[in-house]
Amino acid sequence: MVFVTGATGLIGSYLLLELSKRGKKIRAMKRENSDLSAVKNLFAELSDSNAFDKIEWVETDLLDIPSLSASLQGIKTIFHTAGCVEFDDREKKLIHQTNVEGTGNLVNLAISEKIPEFVYISSIAVLDELPEEKSVNENSKFDTEKAHSEYAISKKKGEMAVWRGSQEGLKVLVVYPSVVIGSLDGKRASEKIFGLASKNKMFATEGITGYTDVRDIAFCMAELAEKDVWGQGFIINSENKSFAEIFNFLRGKWNLIPVKILSEPKLKFIQKTSNINRIFRGKYMSKANYHALTGKAKYSNQKIKETIDRNFIPVNEALDFHAERWKKIQS
Length: 331
Fold this sequence. Notes:
By secondary structure, the chain is an alpha/beta fold.
């Protein structure tokens, strides 16, 4: 039996779908009062309701060790997709509680309960460009000299806990998804891209990053675990594109005018002046946010492609599919 944390989230929901297609017995974690309707609708649309009904749901929390321990009985593989995706560094305590303390708890319980396999979702945010490399790959390191968001720092610390577990006998697998393109209930961080793109006027930078369909992420996690590829990390990335390209594709689809390009000097001015807003709990742009918006990092998917047979969904196809789902969800 497999155990999925974050099962009501974007990646977790699609992972449930993928695992159910493979005939896995699934125990899925949810929090008190979690709404399962979006997950059930996803199954009804892309699989069937009978598959959803076979999932065993347990109510627990990563910070509730006794309850979490009881939920792990009889489990062979943990898929840890739960996480706090928050880029406001003022929420540092919440971010670290979930992504660091929660992950540490799960790793410790996996060791004590003798659960053999642990799959962890990290992030490309923990991989920094190497001057001598043309693209970011699995050998790229977390550069402590660079500005990072609390989210990135927390994901790195969570990952370190997972690798510590490997030293104590856990078979671990770490995946680094690029920016996730997906649709679930219109409320997820990854779905904000569609809301932004649908505005009458908008600005974007020419910064570049990687993008991946959530369906590819779910497939890769399940496939790597099934192939017993342990003790390694894999970047999951379809294509590298600029923010302007992504938004203009969506805006063209919706017959909206192209974005206006925001220059780096203007963005730098906004970043500096936004610190005033931070004092008053308003919206602001951190140094890490600025670098993310202006950077031109390109992420390699060579290793994952050499390891499993998967043709990644092209970014435009992914945007098409999930934009349509997002529109239906909004109506």
